[in-house]
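[recover] target loaded
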């Protein structure tokens, strides 16, 4: 090789060396199948909810259609039957036509307010033993005291969660104010049981 060829060789790029890519280690069969399919559902925690008997009738008296709709959805999903009224007058009428086992009663209502309606319920021998949960957007101590003094069984602040609703119901169940297993409703001969909305 001449001197000129030696000089050219100094400026030639060095040939690329091939470096083999690393081979991933084999995945054990146990780990490979662990992610297949859907993961099992998380374990449900907490105490199992105690429901009243299926078909327990609940009357909801509230002038807010939103509150009525939400409460009705909660109750019906647990097997309760519901009656609804947007004012105390129509609520008291339904109370006598289709007696419920429980009443959710709002305090602020058009016309007759919830306190006056509660007094009427407690003065009537046919309805005085029906448990009543009063509802209000204001959690004032005076409201709770006044409601309890004239016969409310519990007080629930709005807005409320599903847990709050059934927590209140369970407290009444624990005190045997709502029947866990009531006698089935039997229509009188020649009559048809009223349809629920």
């Amino acid at each position: 090789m001449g001197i000129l060829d030696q000089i050219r060789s100094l400026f030639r790029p060095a040939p690329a060396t091939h470096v083999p890519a690393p081979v991933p280690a084999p995945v054990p069969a146990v780990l490979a199948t662990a992610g297949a399919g859907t993961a099992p559902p998380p374990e449900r925690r907490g105490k199992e909810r105690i429901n009243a008997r299926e078909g327990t009738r609940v009357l909801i008296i509230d002038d807010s259609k939103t509150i009525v709709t939400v409460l009705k959805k909660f109750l019906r999903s647990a097997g309760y039957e519901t009656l609804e009224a947007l004012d105390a007058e129509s609520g008291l009428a339904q109370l006598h036509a289709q007696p419920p086992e429980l009443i959710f009663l709002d305090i602020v209502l058009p016309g007759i307010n919830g306190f006056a309606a509660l007094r009427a319920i407690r003065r009537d021998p046919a309805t005085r033993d029906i448990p009543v949960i009063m509802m209000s957007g204001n959690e004032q101590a005076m409201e709770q005291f006044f409601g309890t003094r004239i016969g409310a069984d519990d007080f629930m602040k709005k807005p409320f969660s599903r847990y709050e609703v059934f927590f209140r119901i369970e407290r009444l169940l624990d005190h045997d104010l709502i029947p866990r297993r009531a006698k089935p409703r039997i229509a009188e001969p020649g009559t048809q049981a009223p349809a629920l909305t």
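[recover] notes: The radius of gyration is 35 Å.
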